[in-house]
Amino acid sequence: MAALTADTILLQRYHLIAPVADRGLGETWEGVDARIEGRRVLIKVLDRARTASARAVARLRALPADVPAPGALA
Q1: CA geometry: angle at 47 spanning 56 and 6, to 5°?
Q2: Which residue range is the domain that position 18 belongs to?
Q3: What is residue 22's three-state secondary structure?
Q4: Is residue 3 one of the residues assigned to a domain?
Q5: Where are any strands of DSSP class E within 1-74?
Q6: 74 pLDDT exceeds 50?
Q7: pTM tops 0.85, yes or no
Q8: Phi-psi category of 72—alpha, beta or left, where left has phi over 0 and alpha has psi -120 to 50?
Q9: 2 versus 36: which is more confidently predicted?
């Protein structure tokens, strides 16, 4: 994947505004959901290199199916 920048559109839906964090399994971005008129969201973009190990896969599988933070995407 190309480097992400502000104004990148993901999946023809999510408009990236600003990076929030770059640690753990990937980057987290503040963004807007174009399908839900300006709804602010958090977008987690997983890094393939960081998620390739069995340990990383186990960490991902251990995450809850529902995301408790309002506006966060699973």
Answers
A1: 145
A2: 9-62
A3: strand
A4: no
A5: 9-10, 14-23, 26-33, 39-46
A6: no
A7: no
A8: beta
A9: 36
